[in-house]
Amino acid sequence: MTTGAGGAAPEAPVDWDAQAAVFDEEPDHGLRDPEVRAAWAERLRSWLPGRPSDVLDLGCGTGSLALLAAEQGHRVTGVDLSPAMAARARAKLAGRAAEILVGDAAAPPVGERRFDVVLVRHVLWALPAPERVLRHWRSLLRPAGRLVLVEGLWGSVTPVGIPAHRLTMLLEPLGGRLRTERLSDDALLWGKEVDDERYAVVATLP
């Protein structure tokens, strides 16, 4: 489950089951445009390990990023709160080394399993107690695992989201190395020019 159209944050609760049928119409959701898809694939390749790894995609929506990761040779577990979103993700990843679960991104139903990467796009900002959530996601990683967090700050009058400086501050107590990439300037990722703050933080943790 990600934010609304074009990455814009919803102003009211969204019925994600109802949105599932049209979710992929946004360029950065469905990745149907070859150039948009290639732009996300290139970024994902730079964020994920070069070897086949276990990737946990939280708030996976209809599975577009999960599919890219699977195509790059990774074993993917996707989690989304919406059964309709999860069903579309399962269909999209059919035949791949992937599993899609219905559950809460803040407390994914993965039991004692551990992963090389926790990948989350446009989800953390909407969760209560992000410090606690990040600690829990950290606990799902193997040693030298990575948190790959794609976030932003949307809107000018009453902006919503989480700015990059705050997210890096929240990550610092976890230790490890942090790398921040500005994504606002890459129109291909969004299928249009954007003027708000969009970024990714890759945290490689001990």
From TrEMBL:
GO molecular function term, any single one: methyltransferase activity
Domain Methyltransferase type: 56-149
One BP annotation, GO: methylation
CDD domains per UniProt: AdoMet_MTases (cd02440)
InterPro entries on file: Methyltransf_11 (IPR013216), SAM-dependent_MTases_sf (IPR029063)
Gene3D superfamilies the UniProt entry points to: Vaccinia Virus protein VP39 (3.40.50.150)
Swiss-Prot/TrEMBL keywords: Methyltransferase, S-adenosyl-L-methionine, Transferase
PANTHER family documented for this protein: METHYLTRANSFERASE, UBIQUINONE BIOSYNTHESIS O-METHYLTRANSFERASE, MITOCHONDRIAL
This protein's name: Class I SAM-dependent methyltransferase
